[in-house]
């Protein structure tokens, strides 16, 4: 097995079980390593510290999959997948939905791999060359052991450019009647475009927050900013919202949002408005008031250098939302980037509340549900949080 040898004194993060080994810690590279072949990591003193996936082009030079001196068994990947599946099957918090994340990268000891299951269709998203190289084995496992009738690839194209692999996109195995797969989430019906939708097709990570919106929606005028396919608005429709206004810059996403509202609404009389355009601009120019407002922008900060600009954008979006919030309104405000922490989100909300002269109560907080586990060893895996605020 090929080996990576660390610089003297650079063994601390591996000993603390952090799965990322940065290029600056490496004294000796292993030479040519086939994609998907594990490398052994040794300290400068020669001690074996772990094994992992080697990425010669990445700052994250090794993503560790095992710690300590023992070499992982040949079937380590299948074992991890089976463990991830068993954890979900035994988790009562995950019953009631057939849209579930089966594998959450580092959170499940599977760096570079996300698998989302939509009913009987699994969508596989690889973001490292090593995981992409294991694709065929993963597909076989999903069919044989996870009951997948079809497996679709939606590899991360920008990661593929960085890592130097050819991203797979499209049906890998089985058959699909259409690209639109129906899931049921606590009674809500959603159509997931597994072939063309954003990421793997749907934001499963907002499931718990959607349930909260459904519970709060009765009789309320609801604004869903950055709605994508209207996951929140459809939940509000099912919860008995009085009116809905949805805003997104993606026309195809809005087309699906229309169907989601139609299929989930409790009352025939529900007035719904779909605004195609910039959510900042739309929120700035709305002349109505709303009782329940969801602000769920895209990541905005993909690197730590983006944080100041992203913070201003988050604050702007939230200020616009506050301007149209009726007295006593509920506001749900989310961030979905590791670089903007839960604490920073609170500070941004506080700044906007001060500027707007509107004191707010924190009525609840959200994180990703338990099918998106974050390893305590890997704080970088924490990317999603939300605040439920009341005006
Ligand atoms: N709330 C959604 C997920 C939002 S993802 C859900 O629960 O499913 C972020 C969304 O913001 C994407 O759909 C993207 O199309 C949209 N978007 C990005 N920039 C935007 C902008 N400036 N104005 C409006 N929508 C935007």
Summarize the structure.
The chain is α/β, with parallel strands linked by helices. The chain has helices at residues 12-15, 76-89, 129-133, 135-145, 157-163, 207-216, 231-238, 251-264, 279-285, 307-323, 342-356; strands spanning 3-6, 20-22, 26-28, 38-42, 48-54, 60-67, 99-104, 113-118, 121-126, 150-154, 169-174, 180-185, 188-193, 221-225, 243-248, 271-276, 290-295, 325-336, 361-367, 384-390. Helix 7 runs parallel beside helix 8 (251-264) and helix 10 packs across helix 11.
Helices, by number, come to 11
**How many E strands?**
20
Report strand %.
25-35%
Average pLDDT figure:
97
First CA to last CA: what distance? 60 Å
Main structural class: alpha/beta
Radius of gyration: 22 Å
Low-confidence runs = none
Tell me the overall shape. globular
Bound molecules: S-adenosyl-L-homocysteine
Q: What order do the strands of the largest sheet run in, or round the barrel if closed?
A: 16-15-14-17-18-20-19
Helix content: 25-40%
Largest sheet: 7 strands, mixed
